[in-house]
Amino acid sequence: MLTVLAFIVTILVIVAFHEWGHFLAMRAFGVRVLTFSVGFGPRLCRVTDRRGTDWVISAIPLGGFVRPLDRRDGDLPDDATPDEEFSGKPAWQRVIVYAAGPIFNFILAFLIYWLLMMTAGERGYAPVAGNPAVDSPAAVAGFEPGDHLLSVGGRAVRTWQDVMGRLVLHLGDAEPVPVQVRDRQGQERTRQLDISAWSRDPEQSPLPVLGLSPAVVIGEIAEGSGAQRSGVRTGDQVLTTDGQLVPGWSAWRQKLQESPGRALPATVLRDGREHSLTLHPEPVMLEDRVVGQLGVLPGGIVEQRYNPLSALDAAGDRLAEQAGVVWASIAKLFTGHLPLDSLGGPVTIAQVAGQSAEVGILSFLMLLAYLSITLGIINLLPVPMLDGGWILFGIIEMIRGRSLPERFLTTAQGVGLTLVMSFMLLAIYNDLVRQFS
Q: Does the pTM of the predicted model rise above 0.90?
């Protein structure tokens, strides 16, 4: 139920904002707007305002539209004036109208990021590498525990989220991605990371596929806990426990829970040197069973707070970063550097929306901003039937000084419709394959 609700809210918000941009631009140029619809198909509700616009919510929440008064749709009503008709407007005005929808998607994303920066700021884990998986691309590249990632592909990173965002920009690249690190001795080095394994399966999270894992760094230590008795210090990076390499925080916590009261030999990295310790997870009751707990919290957390003014810059940076990720992904899809089966449709969007809503409102808002950017960029592609196609035709008309032939526009519209429907059907097919495979 949450998945369905999250999907509906997502589509309603980003589509309504997109169409609102078209609507306001039309109204600004004196165009009569006949219908403002969110969704397609049977109408669920309709309200008509005093200027004659029907505000509609329809049954199929997979898009929306704004329908202006247009002589190409048939004869004009008796009470209509030529100034209210859309196709007779100057080309530059029509270009602005078509561009207003995607622009409003970017504005929505910017407002969401600004709100999040002011209220929650930015928070993530410092990109310090743990033990690379054996024979993984990270191991081949020479990554070592304690490597602090500084940049990926020449772009600076502050958190693991930044790392994954930078890696997306290189999906499908034939050459390894240069990753600059500061190793445990404080020396800066460059690791050449081959991401071809992830490019072949981009639906997976990049870090496990590439063999990279965030370091298990000790944060806050509880008073009188087993960690204090073990000699653990804040900032220690746990490398091994009970003779086994530690692959990540979850696996390490599970090992401790399975070892109540046991003495576990361990190796930690402290100030660039390895130290041997003995961990003493204390037995505690958890859900009617005894588990081991050391009494520590994760460390290495990076936080940044913003006031309303500085949040503007941070929101703009995040918008530009995410737009770059989306554009790079779309470009690689069309150039064949990304497989077409990575394209997701409404089922994928619904699942991701539901998962983000389960995590919390902040996660859901981040997804909403990302999808709004995606919708804006897709609509700017120079494909007939999309806003970008009509913007292109409007610019050509301004250069030519006269309208394009109706026959050409009709043919282009048919080609564009075929392309758009083909990609929609492919996305839905991919969704079905994922569900039943």
A: no
